[in-house]
Amino acid sequence: MKQVLESVTGGQRSTLPVSGSSGQLRQRRLWGWFFLSPWIIGFLAFTIMPMAASLVFSFMEFNLANPDETRFIGLDNYQNLLDDPLVGVSLMVTLRFAVIALPIGLILPVLLAALLNSEFLVGKRFFRTLFYMPYIVPIVSAVYIWQGMLGTETGWINRILDWVFQVDGPRWLDDSTWIYPALVIMGLWGIGNAYLITLASMQGVPTQLYEAAKVDGASGIRRFFSITIPMISPVIFYNLILSVIGLLRYFEVPFILKQGTGQPGQATMFYNIHFYKETFVFLNMGYGSTLAWLLFAITMVLTVLIFASARYWVYYAGEDR
Amino acid sequence: MAVTAQQQDSSLSPVFDADFRRFGMYATVTLFATMILVAFLMPFAYMFLTSFKTKDQIVDSATGSVLPVTNVTIDYEGEELPLLIVPLEDGTVQELALLDSGRRDSTFIDPENLEAAPIEWEGRWRTLSPVTRPEWHPENYAEAWEIADFPRLLFNTVMIAFFGLVGTLISCVMVAYAFARFPIPAKGFIFMVLIATIIMPRQVMLVPLFAFFSTIGWTGTWLPLIVPHFFANAYNVFLLRQYFLQLPRDLDEAAMMDGANPLQVLLFVIVPQSWPVIISVALFHIVFAWNDYFEPLIYTLGNPDIQPIAVGIQQFNFRYAQQPQLIQATALLAMLIPVIMFFLAQRFFMRGVVITGVEK
Fold first, then answer.
1. Architecture of the domain defined by B141-358
2. pLDDT tens-digit profile of B96-113?
């Protein structure tokens, strides 16, 4: 009975037509496809077909500035990946940045959420709103603000270092080592999303768990690591996936900061800046596609590894995820 | 340690003691959060103050005040003398004008009493702080507004955001409705594919799309930035679907009994109940359009007249890199509208983020 009702009203699971209403069901299905059609058309036109095309491009010599010379060149573009020194350099740059940015990007949202979830915090809404707010600031504005803040002579960070600790601050943006912490600091303004969903997840932890642990004499820190962290691990997992994807897409901040020059040295020659130049400045569609597919392969491998690791450390309360 | 401290306090009543410690916790945690927040938001103060300075004031701020100030000088026999704060031997500190500077000793005169004898002072005058007064330069904004051509940038951004918004609302509401209410075969699988597109690196699609748009002459127009939004995207569909699933079906069914077709149900039953989530989607889209950088960059590179604010400002600041005050003024102007929108409608923003983040 319930199944029939669901099939008529368009229930979650599609069920086989049971009674004589199969004509009605067919009609509902047609309507369903109609409403789904924008995405299906878009998925074919803007995802599937372009992916197929870029796979073909990656075996071609194809430059938009010189379309007459377009021809198949087999695996030459892939050979080129190995010969292009900037591929190795830019992957190393991305990796070096990730080594600092990833742990901070995972830990700080949890700490901030714990602080803003504290029962002793007065004015919670005020703090939650203002800690989220910089997330709304356009990246262009944020980069210019931080460029000034991190200036060697007149930037406030170095002035505070001088004033409080009497040390000369580093040349944040012109030093090939300090540029990475500088980029991480800039990235902190984007913490809003990650901390907010972590906070919401912390609020969803059943209070009985904490009360039971308290009765058993567990300290606050013990409760945090033994209850809070496992209970919010799905959100940490989600943040990890989004952080890794964000790192593999990282482009705007270093590009706006250094106009894509990769300076200082080649320290900001991130993979996507190299990809951008090859593809959209030199209009090299063939090799650009090959670079894109290498990134695609890396993304897929990392995503699969992270998803495979989930069952060892992510705790899903209840039955199936 | 803690135990002995407690024993010492035993003269106080236990109730007062507990209250007092609770209050101490409130004060400590709130103060700590305030300090972090101040550090977190300090760059806004930097931007604001710097945008009202001249270039010289910015250079001076390396050692002097962070406020837009200027050094006070006095006119003495046709000469401009700087006014400095001088600690004197008798222990007083006076504001004196530097008449004659030397490496080890200098001569000052009292600006209040120019007739009096000059004062000899031993020490290096360069270590003295100048007397300053505030001097703000709001004209930086007029200059930045004009040179960067803000009216044009704002117009372009609003148009791109508006048409994209129309597209994303129509398409995402339709697709979310399909997922929430219709018996589509393999719906679970299709939904998984939709969500998986979030993880996919855009670059793989971008190259052929760019080649295609450039072949059909769409590069240098707004079309590549608008048309794809008419074909739904995973985030908004997810958000809308979660909301639609919570709506009671009774109203849908009642409307269908009365002969409404599914399109009418969507328009007259579902949408009127869903304004909060539709507003969230609209706000997210506007902020997205304001912020979007990569695709506007590649598609409008050849045609600066149609560039939105993010790209236009970057190009402007590239040319005016030596004018930090103008850069900070443009940074403030560019973030003004999204930030005001956020403060007016923060509930919609923050609720939307929580739904996409936690329920996935």
1. Orthogonal Bundle (1.10)
2. 888 777 777 788 888 777
